[in-house]
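Hi again,

Forgot to attach this to my earlier email, sorry! This is the prediction with iron/sulfur cluster bound. I've pasted everything inline since the attachment limit keeps bouncing my files.
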Amino acid sequence: MPIHEKSLIRPENLRTNEELEIDGIDVSGHWSTFIENRSVTDYNEAMQDEIAALPGGEFIHRCWQCGSCTNACTVNAINPDFNPRYWIYLIRCGMEEELLRDKDIIWQCVSCNKCTYACPRDVNPEGVMKATAHWLELKGHTEPKPAAIFDKEFSNQVFAKGKIEESSIMRRFFAHTGQPLLQDWLVALMRSLLSRLPVGLLMKLGLSTVFHPRTRGWSAASKALEDYVEERERADRRALGLKTEGARQ
Ligand code: SF4
Ligand code: SF4
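Structure tokens for the complex follow:
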């Protein structure tokens, strides 16, 4: 039987006989395209529980596979391989190896939350995407992605000063991700901002770049925040059966 939904099958799983004759009938090419048989033996039966234990993944069990999330997804419209419905299915089945084939695109979720509003079961697919990207990093399947590095720089500055200084965060982010400081898009953005922002605000920004202000009496709040984040990270690692020492670096 010809395969009508070829786009849903990975190309490496398709087999085509370029020259095949059966009972005198030429069934070459399209008429002899088959899907490769495969057996899945290495299920991770804890996978759904592991994702559900991470922030954002709590309601994955509610999914009934309607596909509204994928249908609404911003990234799927550009890249059909980005498929939240399918990944939720794999996680719920425990098909870890299959999920790992897409490990380098799952993090591309842009958190637009269109899927969250489309979901009839309140699964919070955006949260599941974040939890899955976090799971991939904690398990060592992927390196920390730029978004995670940026988050860390951002929170480290909040812990240290109780204030955000954008230029310092960007400098450190670029340094840690190996990017040059002067980038065309950044120069264009700075030009645009310089021509639009009020002079008073520009002076304030300039002064904060030089003097690095801190929030007064911040140390107690900073300690409480750091303790909370550390405890949260330990809990995430515990849920995945990982060592908890050195959770924050
Ligand atoms: S939040 Fe992520 S998964 Fe959801 S629609 Fe946006 S890009 Fe797609
Ligand atoms: S929209 Fe919700 S219920 Fe439907 S497939 Fe996506 S996560 Fe599952």
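The beta strands are 14-16, 21-22, 25-26, 33-35. DSSP finds twelve helices and four strands in the chain.

That should be everything now.

G.
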